[in-house]
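Hypothesis: this fold can be encoded by more than one sequence.
Test: take the structure tokens below, design a sequence, compare later.
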């Protein structure tokens, strides 16, 4: 891979990687700052996309169209949905969906994007394995699971929504960007993987837990990205 795009949504997820980069150039497009340079000896373009699906999709398309990245790694934090996950545990995406797409009025199941061949976007197997191996090596005290990332423009903070995302979508973790990035990568035939450290339990206490653990979880995700870059 010649150039790897790395996307995080927030300062907490991106600044710690920016500080470790050998930055050659900062390019501003669509109110975003794309940091071109090297990280762990690999050519990367690192960017903070902002929160939500539109921001992350826009960012992914610019990485692909303008910077010609060969793959995209989406790093950051998420809410734990799988019952075996706790705060600071890790999920590596096997695939991603967008749960807040709803055309059930026309008979479609929730999460189905009308008139597309698929609404489930599969992560690249090589990147998944590299991320999983790096996660196991870097986070010896936390669980690492491969599973589905479910994405919507909602901060998950209720047991009812959490149960729906597990029962109806098989979600392992929930967040607000990965599924949109996966969608763009699918349309452009660009490999991707999503790496998420759990910042909260995606239930009624999620807001409080998130504020407490977001920095620690983001740091865990950063360590995995660095280790992964060494291996690919």
């Amino acid at each position: 891979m010649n150039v790897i795009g790395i996307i995080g949504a927030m300062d907490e997820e991106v600044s710690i990687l920016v500080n470790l980069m050998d930055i050659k150039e900062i390019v501003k497009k669509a109110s975003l700052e794309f940091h071109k340079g090297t990280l762990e000896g690999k050519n990367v373009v690192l960017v903070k996309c902002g929160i939500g699906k539109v921001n992350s999709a826009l960012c992914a398309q610019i990485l692909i169209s303008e910077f010609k990245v060969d793959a995209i790694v989406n790093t950051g934090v998420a809410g734990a949905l799988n019952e075996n996950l706790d705060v600071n545990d890790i999920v590596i995406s096997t695939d991603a969906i967008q749960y807040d797409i709803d055309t059930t009025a026309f008979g479609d199941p929730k999460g189905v994007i009308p008139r597309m061949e698929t609404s489930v976007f599969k992560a690249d197997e090589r990147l998944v394995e590299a991320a999983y191996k790096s996660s196991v090596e870097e986070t010896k005290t936390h669980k690492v699971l491969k599973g589905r990332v479910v994405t919507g423009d909602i901060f998950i903070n209720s047991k009812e929504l959490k149960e729906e995302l597990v029962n109806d979508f098989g979600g392992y973790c929930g967040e607000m960007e990965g599924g949109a990035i996966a969608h763009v990568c699918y349309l452009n035939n660009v490999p991707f993987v999503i790496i998420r450290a759990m910042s909260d339990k995606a239930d009624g206490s999620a807001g409080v837990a998130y504020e407490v653990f977001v920095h620690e979880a983001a740091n865990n995700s950063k360590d995995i990205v660095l280790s992964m870059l060494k291996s690919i």
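The first strand starts at residue 4 and ends at 8. The chain has six helices and ten strands.
Hypothesis status: open.
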